[in-house]
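Please complete every field before forwarding. Incomplete forms are returned to the sender.

SECTION A: IDENTIFIERS
Entry label: holo-326
Bound molecule: 1,3-dihydroxyacetonephosphate
Molecule representation: SMILES string

SECTION B: INPUTS
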Amino acid sequence: MSRIAVVGAGAWGTALAALHARGGQTVHLVGRDASSLAAINEHHENRRYLPGIALPPAIQATDDPELALADAEFVLLVVPSQSLAGVAASLEPHLAPGATLVLCAKGIERQTGRFMSELVAGPLAPHPVAALSGPSFASDVARDLPTAVTVAATDADAADALARQLSSGTFRCYASDDLTGVEAGGALKNVLALAAGIVSGRNLGASAQAALVTRGFVELRRLGEALGGRAETLMGLSGLGDLVLTCSSPQSRNFAYGAALGRGEDLSNLKLAEGVYTAAIALRLAQQSGIEAPIVETVAAVLERELTVDEAVQRLLARPLKREVG
Ligand SMILES: NC(=O)C1=CN([C@@H]2O[C@H](COP(=O)(O)OP(=O)(O)OC[C@H]3O[C@@H](n4cnc5c(N)ncnc54)[C@H](OP(=O)(O)O)[C@@H]3O)[C@@H](O)[C@H]2O)C=CC1
Ligand SMILES: O=C(CO)COP(=O)(O)O
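SECTION C: PREDICTED COMPLEX
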């Protein structure tokens, strides 16, 4: 029987552990906060990240990677993108030979511009690598609501097998061999969701919102293709699908962060929003590729405080366009 371990006991890691533990199979969930882990084991609830959602008792939360990973065939890595390199290096001695690593973070490392698969390629090189990405809020998956995502690996047969392995009656995984496209879509949609949040927070209306999402998708596709992703991938679940989800719901941390920015609120208590870390590096990648990405550029500038929110909104909505497509 396959064994699944999840590293990262935040919202998404806990939801994925719940998904796979629902059939009764033990799933180890590796975290670092002893009291949260104890509460998951005793009360079957992650009160910090998914309060009020009942978790399957087959989740075994632990801070011991050796125990969790010793016989895990599939290891889901679900820590934020800026922490992944360090966490991956620390896991290396504990991984079972041949264990498949499933990358679930959506981002680009700020310091280096590397995608998640590039971060693990060094320290964990002997292990097969895949990415899981697509429109999927943790609280939906934890509550067993229907969800569809993309599972990508450069080897198409491995992607097919993994998609079958990770699918359930409510969690449908579509396979792809375009790992780059899937990673690019997942990282870039976060930056665009910040922009959608700003427009919503400023109460600029549903029409402006639709314009922003559509133009945002043009940037996502242009830049995703320049980075090596395929157009059809960027138009799929892990690109357009996730963009639509995160640009339309305050459940999205990126959208919520942008909306708070738009309303001029204090941002210090808001939870992690990956796009905040990704915007500047996404802009740099666009510039290096000679890609026009005015929305990404505006978001990066407002986060760096080079523009006020009013100036950003002005730019987002009043910029003259040359052509609609291209
Ligand atoms: N939330 C969602 O709906 C979805 C999120 N994602 C992606 O999943 C990734 C994780 O997001 P999410 O679970 O929401 O984030 P959370 O903030 O909910 O949880 C992050 C978890 O990672 C842990 N962590 C952070 N840094 C380290 C570190 N250096 N070493 C060990 N553990 C660490 C945190 O531990 P501690 O609690 O101790 O700080 C926390 O348990 C992101 O890239 C996000 O884009 C993808 C799809 C859906
Ligand atoms: O990626 C997500 C849903 O697919 C979650 O988005 P946020 O990180 O913006 O909450």
